[in-house]
Amino acid sequence: MAFQIVVLVSGFGSNLQALIEASRASSSVFSIQAVISNRNDAYALERAQAANIPTFVITATAGQTRENYDQILSQHLKSFNPDLIVMAGFMRILSASFTEQWHHKLINIHPSLLPKYPGLNTHQRAIEAGDDRHGISVHYVNAEVDGGTIIAQADLAIESNDTPQKIAQRVHQLEHQLLPKVVMAIARGEICYSKADGLVYHHGHCITHPLAMTDLISSSTTEFA
């Protein structure tokens, strides 16, 4: 049986689309079981439905605690028993109890070179800080916002005339390449989280620095644009 993933989304879903296309590639070893959104108007849901992927919406109700919401989300995930949960633009902060339960199966993509700029407005913050490089990170998720072991990163140059909007366009291109490569590498067992020691390994070697895009080339014979 193919490696099974569930994707969590909140918005436009361009990273979900990249994963859908990667899952359909002849060399793919993973499939998408379901897409779950916390917003019923997320365009990502339409992308999933067009690909015949089951969709589910779990919206927060007035006065609902984060822990209660996460319990409901966790029950849905348990019904699928996925091999991996991918946060692809899922705009909710998860509770410590949720991340503890799923941390060995839960990854996120974030638009900065972590540990720089966790949270929001990362492109603007990079420009204001005068950074000459910016980029994206794929990481395992823990209770710290945008924390957890960084698996891989990809970077780009910040030009003198850049705006957050211009950077966002180039960042999305990197995301659509890096995220499918990481998922493919995890599906193939080339990247794995060890529950025994809490460390992440790539081809049997502990990851002490984020992997680069080139480190993942061997993980897939197909390039995802």
From TrEMBL:
CDD domains: FMT_core_GART. It catalyses: N(1)-(5-phospho-beta-D-ribosyl)glycinamide + (6R)-10-formyltetrahydrofolate = N(2)-formyl-N(1)-(5-phospho-beta-D-ribosyl)glycinamide + (6S)-5,6,7,8-tetrahydrofolate + H(+). Pathway: Purine metabolism; IMP biosynthesis via de novo pathway; N(2)-formyl-N(1)-(5-phospho-D-ribosyl)glycinamide from N(1)-(5-phospho-D-ribosyl)glycinamide (10-formyl THF route): step 1/1. GO terms for biological process: 'de novo' IMP biosynthetic process. InterPro entries: Formyl_transf_N, Formyl_transf_N_sf, GART, GART_AS. The record marks D146 as: Raises pKa of active site His. Keywords: Purine biosynthesis, Transferase. GO terms for cellular component: cytosol. GO terms for molecular function: phosphoribosylglycinamide formyltransferase activity. N(1)-(5-phospho-beta-D-ribosyl)glycinamide binds at G13, S14, N15. Transmembrane segments: none annotated. It comes from the Bacteria. Gene3D superfamilies: Formyl transferase, N-terminal domain (3.40.50.170). Its EC number is 2.1.2.2. Belongs to the GART family. HAMAP family: PurN (MF_01930). This is Phosphoribosylglycinamide formyltransferase. The gene is purN.
